[in-house]
Design a protein that fits this description.
Largest sheet: 6 strands, parallel
Number of helices: 7
Number of strands: 6
Shape: globular
Order of helices and strands: EHEHEHEHEHEHH
Helix content: 40-55%
Distance between the termini: 20 Å
CATH architecture: 3-Layer(aba) Sandwich
Radius of gyration: 17 Å
Strand order of the largest sheet: 3-2-1-4-5-6
């Protein structure tokens, strides 16, 4: 792929699950991946998979999306090196353990909203100008759990995240970026295993399959 057609892709939450599947698929297509996650080893394994499929080495950023200063530095580095982003995929999420609504641990409640809502709001502010600079696309997948039994912490914080993102989507209709909020089918991820231990995972949709569906939406 020539340099002019290569896309600059930021994946926040790239170490595993859907984020990793999307990063791997896009990297294999020849696009440059900036992979953000807290786990260095998992990012290195992602980079190995991308290169094994013929892609170029990814830019690995072992960072926590909750660290506002680190995210600001990341955005500045992207602006300086590439001038913007073609695609931002945000799959970083905190999944609080299932619990009755009145018994959600205070630390889990705080971390759920910090990661799922506050960090997303901060990232939108940082990534919006980078995406507009290259007429880019933002992808923030939904997982609607609001109102489901025992999903109080996760469901409430995810609903808050998506309310914010839907507002951003409406505000961006004229100036951009294009904002997509797909709802992937249930996948055999580590988060789902925490929610549903002992579940038969055979009927679940592979992350790679759901990644392919999202890529088709982006190209559509």
């Amino acid at each position: 792929m020539d340099q002019d057609s290569q896309k600059i892709v930021l994946v926040t939450g790239a170490s595993r699950g859907l984020g990793a599947a999307l990063a791997e698929a896009l990297g294999a297509q020849g696009h440059h991946i900036i992979a953000v996650a807290r786990t260095t080893g998992a990012l290195e394994e992602l980079d190995d998979r991308i290169r094994a499929r013929g892609g170029a080495a990814a830019t690995l950023a072992p960072m926590d999306v909750n660290e506002a200063e680190a995210m600001m530095q990341l955005a500045g580095a992207i602006a300086e090196r590439w001038g913007g982003l073609d695609l931002w995929i945000h799959t970083a999420i905190y999944a609080a353990p299932l619990s009755p609504a009145g018994h959600v641990d205070a630390k889990d409640w705080t971390k759920s909203f910090a990661t799922n809502a506050t960090a997303t709001q901060n990232l939108i502010g940082l990534m919006e100008p980078l995406l507009r600079a290259r007429k880019g696309v933002a992808v923030i997948p939904d997982d609607p759990r609001a109102g489901q039994r025992f999903f109080g912490g996760y469901g409430a914080s995810k609903a808050a995240q998506m309310a914010l993102v839907e507002s951003w989507k409406g505000e961006s209709e004229k100036l951009g970026p294009r904002v997509l909020t797909p709802q992937p089918a249930p996948m055999p991820t580590a988060i789902r295993a925490r929610f549903f231990p002992g579940e038969d995972r055979a009927p679940l949709s592979p992350c790679a399959d759901e990644a392919a569906k999202i890529l088709a939406l982006i190209d559509g």
